[in-house]
Specification:
This protein has four helices and six strands, in the order H-H-E-E-E-H-E-E-E-H. The chain has 214 residues and is α+β, with helices and mostly antiparallel strands.
Length: 214
C-alpha cells in the first residue's frame, strides 16, 4: 500500500469515528426528551438533574473521539514524514553513484604498462587494455619520439642521476652530407630504432676530438 492509500484509509477511519460519535449522541437526547414528557414533575426534575449530569459523560466521549481523531492525524503526519525521509534517502542513493561517476570522469586516467612475454607489451588506460607486438612498439616509439621533439619542457641538458638506459655497442650507422656542409649521422639503437642526428662542421671536429682523446 502506498502513501496515498494509507492516508485515504486513515482519513476514512477518522470520518467513521466522528459519524459514530454523532449517531450515538442523537438517540440519547431523543430518549431523554420522551421520558421527561411521560414522567411526573418530580421525575422530570430528576431527569433534568440526570441530563445535567450527562453532558460531562458526553464531553468525555467527545474528548475521546477528538483524541482518536488527533491520533489519526498524527499518524498520517508520521506516515508522510516517513515517506518524505525515505524519498530523500532514495534520492541521495541515486545521486551518489552519479556523483562518483562524474568524479571518475573528471579524474585523469592512469597508464599501466606490463610485459606478459618477451615480445609483447600491454598498455592499460581507463580499464582498456591493448597488446602490442615488437613492430607496433617500434611504431609507437617513433610516433612518440617525433611528438616529444616539439613538446616542452625539453629533455634535461645533462644526464639525469639514476637514469636507466640500454646502450647499443658498435651500432650500425649511416652518414650523409647536407648542402650547407652539415653531416647527417643516423645511428641504429636496438631500443629506439634508427635515431638521426645532424652536426655542423665545428661540432663534427669536436666530436672527433672527444672520440679520439685518451
Amino acid at each position: 500500500m502506498n502513501l496515498q492509500d494509507q492516508i485515504g484509509v486513515l482519513e476514512a477511519g477518522v470520518d467513521q469515528l466522528l459519524q459514530a460519535a454523532a449517531a450515538a449522541h442523537a438517540p440519547r437526547a431523543d430518549e431523554r426528551a420522551a421520558v421527561a414528557q411521560q414522567e411526573s414533575p418530580v421525575a422530570k426534575s430528576d431527569m433534568e438533574q440526570a441530563v445535567a449530569v450527562e453532558p460531562p459523560a458526553i464531553a468525555v466521549d467527545t474528548a475521546a473521539d477528538a483524541a482518536a481523531a488527533t491520533a489519526a492525524v498524527e499518524s498520517v503526519d508520521a506516515v508522510e514524514a516517513a515517506s518524505a525521509t525515505a524519498a530523500a534517502t532514495e534520492t541521495a542513493k541515486a545521486v551518489e553513484p552519479a556523483a562518483e561517476a562524474a568524479n571518475a570522469a573528471h579524474a585523469q586516467p592512469e597508464l599501466h604498462v606490463a610485459r606478459p612475454s618477451q615480445n609483447e607489451i600491454t598498455l592499460t588506460i581507463g580499464g582498456q587494455t591493448v597488446t602490442l607486438n615488437a613492430l607496433q612498439v617500434g611504431q609507437m616509439i617513433e610516433e612518440l619520439s617525433n611528438a616529444r621533439a616539439s613538446m616542452q619542457p625539453e629533455p634535461p641538458p645533462g644526464i639525469p642521476q639514476g637514469w636507466r638506459f640500454a646502450s647499443t655497442r658498435n651500432p650500425m650507422m649511416a652518414v650523409q652530407k647536407q648542402s650547407n656542409g652539415d653531416r647527417l649521422l643516423v645511428l641504429r639503437h636496438t631500443g629506439h630504432g634508427w635515431v638521426p642526428f645532424t652536426f655542423s662542421p665545428d661540432i663534427v671536429v669536436q666530436m672527433y676530438m672527444l672520440l679520439t682523446q685518451r
